[in-house]
């Protein structure tokens, strides 16, 4: 039995703070538990010990005749700690704390919340909340929640599991799902997440046989590793996870921080983690439910290839645009398939979409032959059929229903979707065949895309390989030369450079390297050298080098008198190649994350960067590169030759392994520019920030 | 009376091809006309002259006892021309041709369609179709269409007007609108648009007093000027137009071409024209209806500033993210407003969204005070209230209803939107107060954004100023020097350059300009000079210039032996500044369109270009520049000084006026690069393509 089973499906439950007043939360919870057919034993706890809402009560859990599986605590905040202690004493080790007035409200709240955690830890107890909404399991008649939805509606049993942090968010999700006829397996809202969080609940839902699709929503995340493990477990089980994370904009993040005290985090990091772990991120509650509906109704498509069969050219075009916009593909039907289709419907237009036109002299049964020719001919993952208003016509629909049923029967692992205005009776009949039904064409396409990419992402999902921890890194100096020496040892290609303390050393180094050379000021206190004029290019002779040495020191002192200067770095002048930026930043929640982008204005103007969890494998490094639009320049641009992508992949792998191995001592590593050339590549500048320092946003060095 | 009134609201109508068989189109149309309370006179035309469906018929319109306002033709394609001629003879000058089998089917189709146009022109007749779906005016009981929707449902009367090219698209729009309780004023589908098109119908709906919002959908557009005029007329009347244009992707465009034979056109040009003319482009039918619903229910917001008042922190964050994503603003409440709000609800969180939390000890009436403090304090355009499931609770909702009603009453020109799960009764009551109601928070935000930007765009919409046509341009040579001479005369800053026919001339020119110089091959046959090595930079002395002259000619001959060579161009070497691209391309439908973007990879990698209709005013040139992300570089980048934006604005205006003045003889003008400097700007290369040549895609010259 999963360790959280008793939270979702308790065989018996105590309601601590049960009230006779149905306007109070403790009264609502008791009413919901007793009204909808829950067959478990219910133990109202009320100080009076008198009957509440007609049920006998006990003044404390300590006096109960048995140990209930679980307890719901709905007392005022100051009374919760004592009640929790009592539960532990009694042996109730799975608890939901619905009371508010803790970390989300300030004042004494955070301290009281901490106390709850200490109590639970001491007793090996697990709990949701405080400020949680409770859980439901409609098939068990179990509604352990005060959600106001239950005043007017009750979710029916089904296969969609819901785990959210925010209670109202969660109840909106299962309400909206219910109103369109979708059933819920279990739902839970974790509130302030002092102990259990959404990741724990996803972990449960993955194991829960009654759940086939998981919908989840986060506001923040405290434990990135746990979230990753839960999502990867779902991926391994091939159980779809459709997920939302609010607070993606500055305004949203500020609101999220106010709401639960949790930091929203860098949204693109969250996005990366979801994707890597096979969770599909939805853009709205409605889209989340649409995707869950497709996943719960039919098979997830085995490929991105979609065929559109339509009675209307115009809607066919609309759907084609939407497919391309959503990343799906519309392969044109092969010649032999077209022949077969035109045999069936001579006026059919297009090669995909196939427009049968509304003039169906041979009748609607032509859908059967055409749809199967399409599915077979182009080896599609999905056929979407647009059938105008026929879904409202009980008399005329049967030939279409037979066509779609035959398609499902003959291609059981492919998705078939019906798009049309419709009545409930026809929708239910198609759903029974495993065919989702949509009214809006664009929503249908987006839902198909979600189901498709959910499957593709889960197939590709895997945890990052382990890297042995290295001894803590001690950089002799925090400057460029020291960073390059360390990175060079870690396999990053660096130039033969020389750190020089005097003009004479600089001149000797330049002679050895050959002219022209580059000179840069060397100081841990000056990470952004060009801003102080700390870089001289193209120095062609000894005199310029000597003069350059003095000039660099002069500029550095003028710009930052307090800076400790370690001399200058002399390096060969390098031309050509593509300037990229490689960085690894340790995210406080998700650990070392690799960033890759182009140098120049692409990062700042177009945010053309991509992230990946460190360490990278070569395959994952390739994917990271491909996620950057500007990386097309690696293939050669306007006639130039292709650049050494392999050298870039190697460097990405090496730097990511380095960052993981030194995770305990290194906050960030950054190579900017990393020059990719026709043969090989070179780190032209590098910066390593030790972890003792406060983590800074990933800066773009010179 | 509008010239199309009789198509939308005929007082009497002939059905040419009326059939007794309700399975045939001519039978369906007659049945729809006679079944839903249309009070006009109906004249079935059937060769037999016998009663059809119980109504007397005539063998031809020629024998009718009166001249009907309009006719619907539903005959087989080969019989349509004769029927149309008869209508004209009878004096019926507004006709809808519902028959298919014309341009959309190939074969004899296009020729037959041309014949219809000739007949109509000869008689001053206007018609929709062929392959049209007809029109409806529910308030008149008029359903002149064969739409299969009417088998099971009938749109009710309302204020939303619908004009689409595709019939099924249109009927999907009004069906979906109807199912959510929205009424339709008029709807029409124009099919193949051999004569009347969607723009004509928009023009009608703007004047139609019964229509307050227009929904339109195009597949292609043949007459850009007419579309612009119709949209600008709507903007002047402040009647919202929510519009879709399918075929925005390659796959979609290919499907659209197959469907109606109309070219989709460059999607960004269409987008530009919609925006300039105040039409808001929707991304899906559902979104179009959502926006129309908001516009038809409440006032369009006077500003982008939104306040969110929510019972749920989590949903508040979701909506905040959606607002920012949609381009709306969430101003934080001023300090005094916050004081007043906290007075009302001490545990309220955030400054916008304002999260009341679900613990409302003082009851739901607090919404009244808080919502008004917000609206007043931050001078908002819209307040969106998230109220969880209270919209389903008839007992508990009244204090919220009163709060929202007071908000509407006290701020009659601002938009108030309710977001909640709800029952119909409560929705209808709020709608009667002018408050749209949504279940999904994200959809609500997108609809508010659509209504807001629809208003903002219409306020900014204006037609481009007139420019007098110039005499046809005759370039002596099609080369760079000739182009620059012409553009220099038109006010574009160009370098003092010299076209030189011999090494001696080149040397003399270089001496005069001062070294170093640039030399470029001069040939109308070599538009892309760098590809043939046709540019030499940084030539420092007479010897290099002489050698360079020979080298350039050698390279040009080697690369393109047939090219006519006009010598070389000698110009001063210019450094620094920002390379931009300015172009004007004559779109076959929309005329000269200005393009602006950055030089380098921004255009190709990130499609960072923007378009505008020529000619530009300085204000419109500024807006064009601001639409390009990379234009931020003009403000100075990483410490460099701001560049001369004014010089860029001037050049954009001059080139756009030039292109319009020479529209008859010039297909495209392109300056690439156009170098913007700290003081002034310079056209470094230019290309003018005469209109005799086939229009080419806007090429990027060197």
From TrEMBL, chains A, B:
Residues 484-520 form the ATP-grasp domain. One of its GO terms (molecular function) is ligase activity. The keyword Cell membrane does not apply. Pfam families: ATP-grasp_5 (PF13549), CoA_binding_2 (PF13380), Succ_CoA_lig (PF13607). SMART domains: CoA_binding. InterPro entries: ATP-grasp (IPR011761), ATP_grasp_subdomain_1 (IPR013815), CoA-bd (IPR003781), NAD(P)-bd_dom_sf (IPR036291), Succ_CoA_lig_flav_dom (IPR032875), Succinyl-CoA_synth-like (IPR016102). Keywords: ATP-binding, Ligase, Nucleotide-binding, Tricarboxylic acid cycle. It comes from the Bacteria. PANTHER family: BLL6376 PROTEIN, COA BINDING DOMAIN CONTAINING PROTEIN. This is Acetate--CoA ligase family protein. It comes from Pseudoroseomonas ludipueritiae.
